[in-house]
Amino acid sequence: MINFLYLFLTQSKLVSTASERYLLVYMIAVLVIITSLVIIFFIVFQKRKNKLLLDKIKQQQIFEEEIAQAQTEIQEQTLKNIGWELHDNVGQLLAFASMQLSILKMQVSDDVKDKFKDTSDALKESLKEVRSLSRSLNNEVVLNIGFEKSIKNELDRLKKMKFASAKMKVKGDKVDFNNKKDEIIIFRIIQEFLSNSVKYSEAKHLKIDLEYTSDLLKIMASDDGKGFNTDTVDKGSGLLNMKSRADLIKAKLNVISKPNEGVQLLIEYPFNKN
Q1: Above 90 in pLDDT, residue 208?
Q2: What are phi and psi of 207, to 5 degrees?
Q3: Which of 93, 132, 191, 200 is deepest in the core (most CB within 10 A)?
Q4: Could you give the residue ranges of the DSSP H alpha helices within 107-236?
C-alpha cells in the first residue's frame, strides 16, 4: 500500500513538472512572438515615417525649385520689357535728339559747328550704349547671338564705360548647352557679377575665363578691385541672386574675395545633370 502511494505521488510530480515545463515553453513562445511583432511593427513604422519625411523633403525641394523657376522667368520677362523700353523709347528719343542736333548744326556758321561736335559724339555714344544694353537684357537676343559672343559684348560695353581692360579667354572645345534656359541663367549670373564690379569694386580690369571639358563648363570671372571679407559681408540681393540661379541649374558657385585682393566668381556647370 505504501509503495503504491509513493508511486502515485512520484508520477503526479512528474506530470506536474512536465505541465509546468510545457506552460513555461508556451509563455516564452508567446513572449517571443509578441516581441517579434512589436519589433516588426516598429521597423515598419520607422520606414513609413522615414518615407513620409523624405517625400516631404522632396516636395519642399520641388516647391522651392518651382518658386525659383517662376522668379527667374518673371525676372527674365521684366528684363526683356526693360530692354524693349530702352530700345523703343529711350533709343528713339536719343536718335531724335541726334537728328535734331545734326539739322541744327547745318544751320549755323562754320565757327559754331565745332562746338556741336562733343555733344553730337556724346549723343551717338549714348545711343550705342542704350542699344547694346537693351540687347543684353533680352534673352531672345542673347540666345540668337550666342553665349560667348554675348559675354564678349558685355565686356566690350563695360570697357567703354570705365575699365582699362575687359578680356575673355576660352579653353577647350566648345560644348553646346542641352538646355537653352541654363545658358541664359549662367549669362545672367556673369552679368550680375559684372554689375557688382561696376557698382562696388572700383576695379580697373575685368577677366573671364571659360574652360570646356566633356562634362563641365568651368567659369572664372574676376576683377582687381577693393574686394571684401566674405565672412562678414552682408549677403545682398546680388550674391543671393547668383546663388539661387546656380542652385536652379545644379551648378556649383563660389565667390572668393579678400579686402584689397579683388573678387573671383567660380562656376562649375555640369552638362549632364544625371
Answers
A1: yes
A2: -150, 135
A3: 191
A4: 110-137, 139-145, 147-161, 180-196
For residue 140, what pLDDT is reported? 78
Angle of helix 110-137 relative to helix 147-161, nearest 10 degrees?
Answer: 140
Provide the 3-class DSSP secondary structure of residue 268.
strand
3-class secondary-structure state, position 163: coil
DSSP secondary structure letter of residue 162 = T
Residue type, 214: S
The Cα 169–Cα 224 span in angstroms is: 17
According to DSSP, residue 195 is labeled: H
Residue 190 in contact with residue 208, Cβ under 8 Å?
Answer: yes
Domain 164-274 belongs to what topology? Answer: Heat Shock Protein 90 (3.30.565)
Report d(CA 195, CA 210) in Å as an integer. Answer: 19
Question: Cell numbers of 120, please?
Answer: 553730337
Residue 36 amino acid letter: S
Cα 213 to Cα 271: distance, rounded to the nearest angstrom: 9
**Using CA atoms, how far apart are residues 54 and 44, in angstroms rounded to an integer?**
15
- pLDDT tens digits along 163-188: 889 999 999 998 888 888 888 889 98
pLDDT tens-digit series, residues 58-104: 777 665 666 666 556 666 666 666 666 665 666 666 666 677 667 67
Strands (E), the chain: 165-171, 205-212, 216-223, 252-257, 263-270
Grid cell at residue 247: 542652385
